[in-house]
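Fold description:
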Amino acid sequence: MKINHYEKELINIANEIIGFLINNGAKKNDAQDIMQDVFVKLLQADILLAPDKLRPWLYRVALSRFYDIYRRQKRYRDILLEQYAQYSEVEPILADYSGLQRALEKLNDYQSALIVLYYDDRKHINDIAMIYDVSSSKIKVDLYRTRQQLKDIMMGYENE
């Protein structure tokens, strides 16, 4: 069976999109499933797109599917945490976070935003880098330095 030019182009674009999704935080299996869903949608739509319109359409549909999966997983996680807290017989042990709160208040706005985005909002390094329009390595370095600064501030509180 000989693969024609259109099918070769689809395979190349599919591999490109899978790599793009993996680089943006999708697991390999999820990226492959998303691409399979995109192909199913393309077949169900029963359309033959021109090569110049094929790539944007595939990217748009794949990104839409990726965002849907991300939102669904986030919602499931939130529901599970809510249900766990509601039905848990054991009260969570709450440590004294006043030292942490005071230490966070001593950080500048950028540093505290990094901590909140990374730990509370559970954003990936790449997402934070896109928000601040800087490289991911800069975000990693800034997070490391911020954690060290928090550690030093909190050690100072313990020594008081």
Observations:
- Residues 98-159 form a domain with the Arc Repressor Mutant, subunit A fold (CATH 1.10.10.10).
- The radius of gyration is 22 Å.
- Residues 28 and 155 are 41 Å apart (CA to CA).
- The chain has a mean pLDDT of 82.
